[in-house]
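User: Please predict structures.

Assistant: First:
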Amino acid sequence: MHHLSGRLSACRCGHTAAKTASKHSPTGQRVLIKPYPKDNEPRTITVSAGLLEVLSRRIQEYGLGRNDYLFPSVEGPSEYPVSRNTFRTRVWLPTVTSAGLDFNVRVHDLRHARASWLRRALDRGHAPSPCSTTSVRGVAMPLKNYGVLRARVVRGQREGAGDSSPHYQIHLDDGTIDWRVAVNVQSAMWPSELLYLVVDDLRHPMLEQLAGSGPGWAEVARAPGGVALDFIRGNLFQRQQMRVLPGNLAGGVNDLSSVLDAWVVRARDESDASVFAFGERWGPEPTPDKVFGFTPGNGVHDIHMNQGNSTEYAADDGVWQDGGLLFYFPSGPRWVGVFLAFLSQAWHTDDLSGHRTDGGPSASADDAVVRVIAALVNPTGPAPEAESVTLVNASPDEIVLDGWSLTDRSKQRAPIPTTRLAPGATVQIAVTSPFALGNNGGAVTLLDPDGLKVHGVAYTSADARRDGWTVVF
């Protein structure tokens, strides 16, 4: 599995089981094992960090070896895979019942249902979900090559205000390849100014994983619990902290390009500093780079929020694929985050497609009526630990928490019991599995009854290192 991408590689099976009627079988058997008409090349799939953790626990719990089935017919190592009937009676039917479906649904129907959803999305002019496993010809997809580049700064260069879509250009070198990072400083749509935020002491659980990565480009799994950026779900910052700033002003000061230039120059001048550029890769191209002239041309763009777009750019929407610049100064150690968004983008988006969602609570933490203010992450005593999250009603009115919930960094959900909160009152919510406050860093997000984010926070392993201490946000 790749360190950053969360990708799992496996060889395609060389045989397949074919089911047939006995009268048509050459051997009289209903199930035949036949050669599978595919090559033996490895196939790579992207899985979430949460799923990898679940699979790892299962492997350890049952002592499974390399050649054992993950889901056998019995709970433990077995040479027989789970049977169709066992899966249907023990897993599928209880799931259909718990979902409240009052009509017959087969597992096979999911494929057709998914295709229908995608067709409907196409008919309505929307892009399909980035989580889609079914391709539909002609449907635009989100960012094709999302990932992160770690490299050293060579130089930066601003473009003039007269350009149709000015960028701040950064020349990076990962020790083997030259790269150009193109950062939007002005929108092609009205209003043209961008929202920006510089977090000059960024703290987040993903940073430890990034610090241990090597130079160069790495694809990133678009899923919670890893290093992918999501301005809404990742709890990197509070929306109300962002400010509007023009891209280029006369004299080249107090504009977005000058803000970027200041950090680029500092990273260039510190010998151990690195830049992490999140976005979509292009190249390699056979022609020289159009800005810096190196060959082959390679680069990263979409260094901004990539969800909640207006209709014109909705095809680029997706979750866990936002762009950004992280400057790492190991001598501190210190992390600086630069985050950009367009004024036309929405801050409530669909959890699958990343398309804008109308209504919902305010996207500004200043107006969040209920906020997460503390968490007991590392309680004293044996497992299972009595973890908890503390909420406050910041509004002047009573709030009834009915249908509200919390999610952790892996987006495991914990329902909040119905609670009446007087103005200024706090409540401590006890949380249990599968919701977990990991000691290696984590996140807590508060959702309203419609599943929309109201407030969110994150903490690091350093915050959680002392037993019994409450992390205050």
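Second:
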Amino acid sequence: MPAPGPRDDLSEVLFLYTVAASEAEARRVASHLLKRRLVACVNAFPVSSRYWWKGKIESASEVAMVMKSTQGLVREVAKELRRVHSYDVPALVALPVAEGLGAYLDWVRGETRGPPLSKAVKPIKARNGRARAGRRTRRSGAWPRRASSA
């Protein structure tokens, strides 16, 4: 049996991490990548960063962004991020997803440019038809539930 290692499957789901200088920039970057279907989802949250820059230790309030995408789109995400980001050297790292709920991973594949591996699995929809698998509804903040079959 071969030793475990990174997959080279282009449909492998990844978490991509970057930071933005502000909430406005995070929204702009997220919208840019989402509209191009390079990412399926972006979570953004404020962070306090300390880092080396040009020989000095700096600090800044930034917005961390965790994006869900696939291996086959990482280079294009990087290209677009460099194009629209305000930083000279924007952070971008890809973290493989070792395991996850199959329906969620298929949802990520289906919402990006790659096809889902399993066409039999459909995203969960709330009664209003707007929520998707793995997403909270805006109104209630609750996770969408499957309709009961009673």
